[in-house]
Amino acid sequence: MTLKNKVAIVTGSTAGIGGEIATTFAENGAKVVVTSRDIGRAQCKVAEIEENGGEGLAVTCCLESSSQMQSLVDVVIDTYGRLDILVNNAISLPTLPPSPLQDLTYEQLGAGINTNLTNVVALTCKAYPYLKKNDGSILNIGSVMVNQHMLGVPPLYTIVKGAISQMTKVLAYEWAPNVKVNQINPGFTRTAAYKEMGIPDAEADTFFEAFRQFHPLGKIGHPQDIASVAAFLVSEQATWITGMEMNIDGGYSINGRSL
Ligand SMILES: NC(=O)c1ccc[n+]([C@@H]2O[C@H](COP(=O)([O-])OP(=O)(O)OC[C@H]3O[C@@H](n4cnc5c(N)ncnc54)[C@H](OP(=O)(O)O)[C@@H]3O)[C@@H](O)[C@H]2O)c1
Predict the structure, then answer these.
(1) Whose CB among 23, 30, 33, 109 lies 3.0–4.6 Å from 3's, allowing a Cys bridge?
(2) Is 250 in the pocket of ligand 1 (CB under 6 A)?
(3) Ligand 1 centre from 11 Cα, in Å?
(4) Ligand 1 center to 13 CA (angstroms)
(5) Which residues contact 68 (CB under 8 A, 6 or more apart)?
């Protein structure tokens, strides 16, 4: 598998699934644009990539800032003159409150949807002409929640992920034959996101053990489980795949025992 000379944006790539995708893409030869809310964290990740012989560019880009999302592609084109791959990975959890949907204010609904859907669609459209020029590839990171909901998951999270799933299908059709658009739906994957969702470190092992049993393959995911498939889906080895959603979830989505 090679991504040699490809320029790839991976949003939210300092840690977790995005961080591992950035590492894996760089190992496969891509120049990786690492984005973060904090330029220091993005620079640290790029330094790590460079120490391992890869190449990267650190850019500040918060999903909540439509202007930063819009200027991201400009920065990449100014630096590299091309764009081949866009991975829409970042999510803003603070804009997706855990309250029941009926209790959210109009402003909260707008913030959640504009941040996690409108800004993602806008970034993707901005990237389109450059991706089209190079027969590029888009990979959206969804969730196993695209086909179900689970109590405890923020309702807007499930709604937004469902919409991203439809975006994958719409763009795969509309932007064919030049741009491939696919999606990975991760199962429960151990990242710091759970801390942000209120699971303290001390309770993390118990929390993940409780969910492990719902994955027929007997383990919670590791970001590398997602990253290796991500690299395949945007590579030259996957030229006849578009509009596809792949559940990378240890079998969670075919488990008949509902949570
Ligand atoms: N972990 C799971 O079990 C799981 C399951 C299904 C789907 N997913 C999906 O996988 C994706 C990654 O999740 P993860 O678990 O890897 O999350 P994570 O470990 O919390 O990593 C989040 C990454 O996103 C960045 N980020 C956070 N808020 C951001 C914002 N407002 N704007 C831009 N970047 C932001 C962070 O960078 P900075 O902190 O440096 O800004 C970090 O690099 C998400 O789309 C999530 O919905 C995860």
Answers:
(1) 30
(2) no
(3) 9
(4) 8
(5) 60, 61, 62
CB of 90 within 6 A of ligand 1: the answer is yes
Residue 143 CA to residue 134 CA, distance in Å, equals 28
The set of catalytic residues is 157
Structure tokens, 7:
């320029």
Encoding tokens for residue 156?
């807007």
Residue-by-residue DSSP string for 54-107: -EEEEEE--TT-HHHHHHHHHHHHHHHS---EEEE----GGGS-SS-GGGS-HH
Question: Which residue's C-alpha comes closest to atom 28 of ligand 1?
Answer: 92
Helix (H) or strand (E) run with residue 162 in it: helix 155-174
CA gap 214, 9 in Å, rounded: 33
Ligand 1 atom closest to the CA of 141, numbered from 1 = 45
Question: What are 206-230's pLDDT values in tens digits?
Answer: 989 988 988 999 999 999 999 999 9
Residue 246 structure tokens: 């792949």
pLDDT in tens, 230-256: 999 999 999 999 999 999 999 999 986
On whether the CB atoms of residues 56 and 32 are closer than 8 A, the answer is yes
Q: What radius of gyration do the chain's Cα atoms show?
A: 18
pTM assigned to the model:
0.97
Residue 97 beta carbon below 6 angstroms from any ligand 1 atom: no
**CA atoms in the 13 A half-sphere facing the CB of 60:** 7
Q: What are the structural domains of the chain?
A: 7-251 (3.40.50.720)
Residue 100: how many other CB atoms lie within 10 Å: 10
